[in-house]
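Q: Hi! First time doing this. I have a protein sequence and I read that you can turn it into a structure. Is that right? Here it is:
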Amino acid sequence: MAKTKWADSPSDLLCARAGFDLASIDPNGTPGFSGGKSDGRAALEAESDRLSELQEQLWAESRSRGTKSVLLVLQAMDTAGKGGIVRNVVGAMDPLGVKVTAFKAPTPAERRHDFLWRIRRQLPEPGIVGIFDRSHYEDVLIHRVRGLSSPEVIEERYGLIREFEEKVTASGTTIVKVMLHISADEQKARLAERLDRPDKHWKFSLGDLDERALWPAYQEAYQLAIERTSTPDAPWFVVPGDRKWYARLAVQQLLIDAFHRLDLQWPTADFDVAEAKTRLAQSE
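A: Yes, that's right. Below is the predicted 3D structure, encoded as structure tokens:
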């Protein structure tokens, strides 16, 4: 840990425990990391190989009947950097062992089922690292803010989510739930940049401004969702997001910590290694 300048594990520092207060977390902070931007970028690059190796080990173990998988859930306000996490952190892993699902508004077919139906269909299989770009939490976030469901239904969904995630973790999937926490000022600056750059106009939507107008309501909705659904087996990690380099580094380390907790093992050879070496040496 010293080489990456972490004073303590982000899994401990960023975990939302009892008494969690979103408003008290500085979106511009760098909890536990003593370096600056250049140090953070160097640390991200230095640990990319380690992350890749651990993912390969997860995949290899699954080829030998292993049942473990990892699911990274990314939730955030618009412009918080979910795409950057996927490109700069998840991008270090072998794409054959990664499944990214970006959940948009449910289709008419999906609406005919319960809100977790489409989520279940995208859960990672053994050996796979699943990434949810938004998730089932939209059904307790935007639904609360926009009044798309009643308070009673939303309260019920918190319990359904806890039960669902308990079953998912019991089946062998480690869930890493991350909220990228940015400030309203930082979001305004990022939206302004998109408007100033023609190559970023495609990323801008007038709907972003509508959602921004509801900022306080969304902060309250996140507070409640995290309070209700952060559990020992599927805790929430709230990552300050104003500094993109820190958010990426922190999520990388959260994934590495999750892999380490799996106690992954390389499969043992099901053939005589010495004999194979001999045959190889004798081949032309």
